[in-house]
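Go through the following before class.
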Amino acid sequence: EGRETRLRVVLRVRPLTCTETRRGDQQIVHSLGDGAVHVSAARHDATFGFSAVFDAGASQEAVFEGSGMRQLVELAIDGFSCTVFAFGQTGSGKTYTLMGPLAQSETQPASPALLGLMQRSFTCLLEQSRSRGSDLALSASYLEIYNEQVRDLLSPGPPCALPLRWSKTRGFYVENQLSVEFESLDTIVSLLLQGSQRRRTSAHALNRHSSRSHALLTIQVRSRAVSAHPAPGQGWGAQGSARGACPSKQGTLCFVDLAGSERVKETGSSGELSVEANSINRSLLALGHCISLLAKPRGKRTHIPYRDSKLTRLLARSLGGSGITLMVACISPSSRCLSETLSTLHYASRARRVTTRP
């Protein structure tokens, strides 16, 4: 607490798709073990290091355990502001890593082995709350940023734009967002699936289910730990309870599924799709610029332009403030995606130098 903590950055390399294999694409990304990955292609030969690397054979469970996600859940219960976000090229496996198969629904749930970081974290959170003997109050909110508009994915009716405000005590926050309390795994998974189905997606040449918005699911964890006997001088309380209350804590666990970066020429996008792509790329560029500046030593940092996009405003606390952040970089091993893969790897390498003070 209060000490400088580096962002934890892990890498996930998805398998080659059937289309890429039929096309004859070469696999240019190879895991070297111990968190190192090597990219070998014509005129490009580079090695990158991360906290962990998960290759094409890694299971969803291995990613959950090896990324440090379990520790992040425990820190949120302890009152810290925790964030995990997945980023990378469109079609690189970000949503699959966070949620699992896209085809799942309340009537057709995914196989337990394929569930993503979100559902596994919900299970871990509810297990921890029972084992710790704490009075935990859990609530969830789910937003998307589409074409620089913040929209609530849980409110009934068509998604409408919500104002983004700033205050000295709260920092940047979304006004009038709906927050739903939950006590069971079924309830929170239902909220996740309902909200995800309302999120903007489209099909293009690189991805049949391309996310056209950035999505942020935030779990508020409010705890009031209790002991079996009252503290000295505390007495029995007005309600006649024999429990002594410890100070309450409030933590957050935020999952950010960033829309994928894309080149309009590669995706064949036009019209509305092209406008969406430009909006996505602008906000990702703003995020990359903030990360580049935050990666500099604290004494050499200039003004961090969080206000350049709504995405960076909402991630300001996670990136450069008092939060604890896990970044999951997702890449394709295909030779055809070399440029975007290198861009993601350089982006992730810079992020490893960013520090916060939880």
About this structure: The chain has a mean pLDDT of 85.
